[in-house]
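User: C-alpha cells in, sequence out, please.
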C-alpha cells in the first residue's frame, strides 16, 4: 500500500465513528506505530483531521472531494482498463458500478460509446450504482437509465452503504457488475479497506451474471482489510499491461479470465 492509499484508508476509518486511534491504524492497515503517527500528522497538516493523544478526531466540516479522487494514481492505466471494460458491455445491458476511481473512469468512458449515446426510444444502457458521483456524472445523459441504490453515504468515498443499499440491490438482476478493489490476491480474491463497502460490493457482484474485478496491476498481490465476497464470486479481471507474467499465471491458474488492457 503506497502513502496515498494509506492516507485514504485512514480517512475512511475516521469517517466510520469520527475518531481513530493509532492502534486501530496499525491493526487495520498492517503498518508500524511510527508510520501510523506520521500519516496522522500529515493529514493534520492538511487540515483533514485534528490530532489527539494517541489518535485523531474528524473535523466537523465536510470536504468537497474524497482524497482518493483528488490524488488519483495511475490515470493512464485506469483509462486503459476503463476502455477494455466498456468493450465488454453490449448495448441495452444492465450493469452495476461500485464507487472508486476506476469505476468512475468506466462511467466516463460509457459516455463516449456512440451506440449507447445515440437517440432511441429505449435506454442504450441501464447503470445501477451506489456511487453518488457516478450517478451525478450519468444523470444528465437521457440515453443511460441511472438507478441509485439508496443507503447511507459513506464519507470520503461517495458510496451508499448499509441495509437500504442491500435491499435495493437484492431486488434487481444485472448482466455485468464492475467492482474495484484495493487489493487482489490469487488466493483470497479482491479486497478493500472498508468492510461496509466490501459488503455492498459483494451483493452487487452476486446479482450479476458476470462479475468483473477492475483494478490496476499495482494492486495485484496485495491484501486489504475486507474481502469482497468469496473468491469464486468473480470470473473476470481487467487490469493494465504492467501485470507480470508470473502474476498473470497465478490468477489464471486460480480460475480467473484475465483481460490485459494495453
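Assistant: Sequence out:
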Amino acid at each position: 500500500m503506497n502513502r496515498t492509499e494509506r492516507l485514504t484508508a485512514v480517512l475512511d476509518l475516521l469517517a466510520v465513528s469520527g475518531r481513530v486511534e493509532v492502534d486501530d491504524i496499525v491493526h487495520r492497515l498492517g503498518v508500524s506505530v511510527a508510520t501510523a503517527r506520521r500519516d496522522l500528522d500529515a493529514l493534520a497538516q492538511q487540515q483533514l483531521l485534528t490530532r489527539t493523544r494517541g489518535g485523531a478526531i474528524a473535523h466537523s466540516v465536510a470536504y468537497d472531494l474524497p482524497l482518493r479522487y483528488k490524488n488519483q494514481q495511475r490515470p493512464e492505466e485506469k483509462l486503459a482498463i476503463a476502455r477494455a471494460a466498456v468493450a465488454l458491455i453490449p448495448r441495452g445491458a444492465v450493469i452495476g458500478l461500485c464507487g472508486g476511481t476506476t469505476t468512475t473512469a468506466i462511467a466516463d468512458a460509457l459516455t463516449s460509446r456512440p451506440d449507447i449515446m445515440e437517440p432511441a426510444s429505449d435506454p442504450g444502457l441501464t447503470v445501477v450504482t451506489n456511487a453518488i458521483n457516478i450517478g451525478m456524472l450519468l444523470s444528465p445523459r437521457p440515453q443511460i437509465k441511472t438507478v441509485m441504490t439508496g443507503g447511507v453515504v459513506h464519507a470520503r468515498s461517495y458510496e451508499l452503504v448499509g441495509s437500504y443499499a442491500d435491499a435495493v440491490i437484492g431486488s434487481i438482476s444485472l448482466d455485468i457488475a464492475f467492482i474495484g478493489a484495493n487489493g487482489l490476491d490469487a488466493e483470497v480474491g479482491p479486497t478493500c479497506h472498508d468492510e461496509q463497502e466490501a459488503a455492498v460490493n459483494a451483493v452487487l457482484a452476486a446479482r450479476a451474471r458476470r462479475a468483473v474485478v477492475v483494478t490496476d496491476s499495482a494492486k495485484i498481490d496485495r491484501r486489504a482489510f475486507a474481502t469482497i465476497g468469496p473468491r469464486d464470486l468473480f470470473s473476470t479481471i481487467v487490469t493494465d499491461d504492467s501485470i507480470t507474467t508470473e502474476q498473470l499465471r497465478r490468477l489464471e491458474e486460480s480460475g480467473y479470465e484475465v483481460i490485459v488492457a494495453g
